[in-house]
Write a structure and sequence with these properties.
By secondary structure, the chain is α+β, with helices and mostly antiparallel strands. The protein is 41% helix and 23% strand. Helix 4 crosses helix 7.
């Protein structure tokens, strides 16, 4: 048992004692108030930040800070209101058996709530570049036990929460025309083995500072020494960004050297990146096997077998929903989620043959990837780029 585990046990006892004193009714009311306030803050933050900038009330940096802090501010405010309401209700219990039951229930609720918070924070830590915190979480027996008890891992839970509250999504693949979803057979499960072998050639991309109201995370892949390709909509507007090989461990600072808002392509230069590049493959045809890999919903490395529905030239919109653009894309039968953006599409030999950038708005088993030919110009430009480029604006998705 680590020192971190001992500290968790001590704080759990203190949480139980506080719960005994506060009681079940007041404790539950406080918790519900915090959750409600945090959710309202998360949903209201981005539009309020946009309004503040439009009205000249705050700078983009100040508005971004407001959007980040609003969930915490409203969470605390609603928690105080919930606690006051619960304390008022508690007085109606009197001093008999009801008060004892309330105290015992409060102690249990306090301890359980503490461990729930620990579990969720551990999941959040796993998505960050905080090396020391990641080591503490990885070595903790208590966190490991909580993950075994829970139906999903904490990282998956945090990812699902982020996805449910997300305000950012994919660019519009089709504009002025409907999707045509060609029927194909199921993806080959054996492609999972192909994806597993390429984990150390992919990266999680995380924006650490931005002129936009919200930070972003997505996927990327190494295509040359110290060079990573991802989607423009993942990093557009960011003033700071890091990549992590395999989605965890050492954070590398990344410089933006290519940003193509029309095609939705970005190239990051990552000095000292310790990762081998993916090999480039040949074009795919309808019914070919493939696999989508990346870090959906800011969670762990995920492998999704895919099958090509067809290769099409799609008329859609750029990442800002302003200009019409033609893109050569693969329509895939695959599960694509937010955060898969920028991840590679691999063939049956583990070679990069495309890059995921969108999913269907009509079919949950259809996603879209840019073809290598669509990325050819950016690959060449990125390999020779020496200067940073402007970070672009905020996307509307």
């Amino acid at each position: 048992m680590t020192a971190f585990d001992v500290a968790l046990i001590v704080f759990a006892v203190l949480a139980g004692a506080a719960g005994w004193s506060q009681g079940l009714v007041a404790g539950a009311s406080t918790m519900v108030g915090f959750v409600v306030g945090a959710v309202i803050g998360r949903l209201a933050g981005p539009p309020l930040a946009d309004l503040a900038v439009e009205q000249g009330i705050a700078s983009e940096a100040g508005a971004s800070g407001l959007a980040t802090l609003l969930p915490l501010i409203l969470g605390i405010a609603f928690a105080c209101g919930g606690g006051w309401t619960g304390a008022t209700l508690k007085t109606a219990l009197g001093d008999g058996l009801g008060r004892v039951v309330d105290a015992v229930g409060g102690a249990l609720t306090g301890a359980v709530a503490f461990f729930l918070i620990v579990w969720l924070v551990a999941g959040w830590v796993r998505t960050t570049p905080l090396v020391a915190a990641n080591e503490a979480v990885a070595e903790s027996r208590i966190v490991s036990l909580l993950d075994r008890i829970a139906p999903v891992t904490s990282a998956e839970a945090v990812g699902a929460i982020s996805q449910a509250l997300a305000t950012n999504g994919f660019p519009q693949v089709f504009a002025g025309e409907s999707e045509r979803i060609r029927s194909v057979g199921e993806p080959d499960p054996a492609m999972i083995d192909v994806g597993r072998e390429m984990e150390d050639r992919t990266v999680r991309v995380t924006t650490t500072a931005s002129q936009c109201p919200a930070l972003q995370s997505g996927s990327g892949w190494v295509f040359d020494d110290d060079l990573v390709m991802t989607n423009a909509h993942v990093v557009s507007g960011s003033t700071g960004r890091i990549v992590q090989v395999g989605g965890a461990g050492r954070p590398y600072k990344a410089e933006l050297v290519v940003l193509d808002a029309a095609r939705d392509i970005a190239v990051l230069r990552v000095p000292g990146l310790d990762a081998q590049p993916l090999e480039l493959g040949d074009p795919l045809a309808a019914d070919d096997d493939a696999v989508v890999v990346g870090y959906p919903e800011n969670g762990p490395y995920t492998i999704s077998p895919a099958r090509v529905r067809e290769a099409v030239t799609a008329q859609g919109l750029d990442i800002y929903d302003e200009d019409t653009v033609l893109r050569d894309v693969y329509a895939l039968r695959a599960v694509v989620r937010s955060g898969n953006s920028g991840g590679p599409l691999l063939d049956d030999e583990g070679r990069a043959v495309g890059m995921v950038f969108a999913r269907s708005g009509e079919d949950p088993e259809t996603g879209y990837a840019l073809t290598l030919s669509e990325m050819e110009e950016a690959l060449a430009e990125g390999s020779s780029a020496e200067e940073r480029v402007p970070v672009g604006g905020c996307t509307t998705q």
